[in-house]
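Q: what does this look like with dTDP-4-keto-6-deoxyglucose bound?
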Amino acid sequence: MIDIRKFTDNRGYLSVIEGGMDIPFEIKRIYYLYMVPEVARGAHAHKALQQLLVATSGSVEVIMDDGVSKKSFILDKPWKGLLVAPGLWRDLENFSGGAVLMCLASEKYDAADYIRDYDEFKAYKGL
Ligand code: T46
């Protein structure tokens, strides 16, 4: 988890993320999940993609899994980010009403970068 820089004055807050400075990669793509009903998303790993996940509104639970152990992270502040290294399985659960999950990504979209089968993920990790 990282604290995202924020500036505040009597007009409210402004947070900023600069690629290569606040996070260890240049940003090539931004996408965001919103109006998510009571379902889980994610359930995949990336081979090369690096990401920063931020709940810019509401809250989301992200469960990271390296194939051996799992750890749950609650994203519930616009100034809290979860840096996600490649080679980790993630499940996204418990989106609150009005949640917006923004992802800053190190690469353009590539369907071949996804591992969507858990057994395949374990084999990829040599487990
Ligand atoms: C991730 C989590 C947090 C595109 O065409 N281009 C894109 O850049 C993305 C991200 C998705 N898509 C298409 C592919 C699927 O047909 O959008 C559809 C939904 O994507 P997906 O099923 O991968 O959604 P999630 O919520 O499972 O995962 C997404 C990201 O794909 C993934 O990188 O880490 O959000």
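The pocket of dTDP-4-keto-6-deoxyglucose is lined by residues 29, 31, 33, 41-42, 51, 92, 103, 109 (CB under 6 Å). Residues 33 and 101 are 5 Å apart (CA to CA).
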